[in-house]
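Q: Hi! First time doing this. I have a protein sequence and I read that you can turn it into a structure. Is that right? Here it is:
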Amino acid sequence: MKKIVAIPVIFLSLLLVGSSLIYFGSRNDAVSVARSLKAGVLTADEINIAFQNVGGKVIKKNVQESQLVKKGDVLYVLDDVDTKIAIERMNAVISAQEAQIRQEESAIQIQSHEIDLTELTTWRKIEEVQANLEAAKAARDLAQTEYNRNAKLHDSASISQSVLDNVKNTLTQAKMNVVQAESQLSSLLAGSTQEQRANFNITKNAEGMTLQSIVNLRHSLDNRQNQLAQLRAQLVQSKADLQQLEVNNKRLTLVAPEDGKVLQVFYEEGEMVPAGAPAVLLETNRKYVDIYVNEKMVNNYLPGTSVTAKVIALNSEVKGVVRFANVAPSFADLRTTRERGQADLTSYQVRIYVDDIPHLLTGMTIEVNDAERR
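A: Yes, that's right. Below is the predicted 3D structure, encoded as structure tokens:
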């Protein structure tokens, strides 16, 4: 009877002791771990260093795996023979275009002076033709008077028919001279306004008159100006092409964009590198650790917050700054056992960038101090 009573008492005692240990002791469920321990593995940003829009044959490789490099160190050098030839060719093209532009500028200046001279000469020619016209009209009037006189003499049989014919021929020639002078003057005055012509008839001074022939010459000069602008635009394009070639020539030398450690090199000397292909995988000195906290603690880790963390392997502390706190993927959510009646909690991924200290290596475990206790 005593054994029958002792067995349940023993099991009940063990159950009470175990429950007490579970309740008061440290447990490893997700909620407890998240509350007591915020740790992660130190990671570093990695970047692929690539040849930007250029490719070619590797003639020099200056780095190996695990080598530490500084910003600006030369990593690779590609063959630059083709690029240098292209640069020399483009320089020759630019020189030829500059000479062509100078020639066109000089020709435009000469043509402009010639047009001004032609305009001035035409004004004097108009004045000359106007004087000739007036002289032709005077000669015509005199010939008309002479013809009328001789016609009367012929009617009275005082002169012969041949004399009258000669006088008539002179009159006809005088009239033709007037018509010819008027036609020449009208041609020279083409393009002028009625006001300008009226003023010319009064002053007999043609300077300042608009002439169609001169207008046409100035339009031709404007077209040459357009051609000059096109040549200048072509020169600008060629210089831009030259700058691109010079930039590409500099890009044939691949340098480290920042300090870090070479993790992998992808090409050896003599190999061909495609344009834009990554050549070096670099581990930077920008180190960070990711921790996961529940939604009740995330406000303690806002971006920009300074924190301290312990490096287990070095037994030393390191300072850090929170970069972001984002909702973590669903697999990181805290699914409780509900032994305390708690609901499921959403986890947040907090990324903390830490200062670089001696002997701090990626892969080391970092324990972040609880923000609530800072």
